[in-house]
Amino acid sequence: MNTINGAQVKKVVIACDAGMGSSVLLTSQLTKALAPYSVTVEHTPVNKIPSDADVVLCHTGLADRARQSAPDTVVLGFQMFLGDPVFTQLENAIKAGDTLAG
Question: What CATH number did the domain enclosing 81 receive?
Answer without folding.
Answer: 3.40.50.2300
